[in-house]
Amino acid sequence: MPNDYFKFKQFTIHQDKCAMKVGTDGVLLGAWADCVNAKSILDVGTGTGLISLMLAQRSSARIEAVEIDEVACIQAKENIKKSLWNDRIEIHNIPFQDFSKSTNEKYDLIVSNPPYFQNSLYAPDEKRTDARHNSNLKLDDLLNGALKLLSEKGKLSIVLPYLEGALFVLKAAENGLYCVRQTKVLPKPDRAPKRLMLEFMKEKMPLVEQELIIELNKRHEYSEAYKNLTKDFYLAF
Question: CA distances (Å), 188 to each of 27, 35, 163, 185, 192, in order?
């Protein structure tokens, strides 16, 4: 069973109320997304508030986050209230589709660790199902919302399973959002990539492609690249 909380170097994530716990995907995205020049950030489907807090630690941006699940939203607010950056992060308990229609704000960075199990068996727990499946947030809705809410030079950063990510790159390009940075995430050196971390912009630019290996030959023997990416957060590094 996962712990009720997960302690990072500068903040703690309490997760007893949330269906989806702290996981590698969220930590990778929070550390990888380019927030260097971002003044405004939107976190779509924030869950525990993990990625919002990571980006607050890495930037001086004003951050807004949306979360459809009321209980997860309460937990995210609690985690943020206890953090060093509670004055810069605002949580909205609203579906992203409604939020994107109701605001005229523009964001320099939109991040999302979206639900992606499209055709697999639904989890018995309804909240976990909502968090894992795209029944409440289809990737088309994420794409359309990002196109509306991104600033002229803004970036969309997401993490997806490899196949879904490759398909999303094609779909996004058809709609005028172009992949400019792509990192293939491999669990081990001899394994196929399991995840794609993807960065999109409205302006077409040369694609920067990279690979990230998480573990080497033994369990918990992490690669230097993985440790360097996450060392500002994980206590172990």
Answer: 18, 28, 18, 9, 8
**Cα–Cα distance measured from residue 139 to residue 46, given in angstroms and rounded to the nearest whole number:** 16
**What pTM was computed for the model?**
0.91
Tell me if residue 9 falls in helix, strand or coil.
coil
Domains and CATH numbers, the chain: 5-230 (3.40.50.150)
Half-sphere CA count of 32, side-chain side, radius 13 A: 28
Strand extents, DSSP E, the chain: 5-7, 12-14, 40-44, 62-66, 89-92, 107-112, 150-161, 178-186, 195-201, 208-213
Instruction: Kindly indicate the confidence band of residue 21, based on its pLDDT and cuts at 50, 70 and 90.
Output: confident
Cα 169 from chain centre: 16
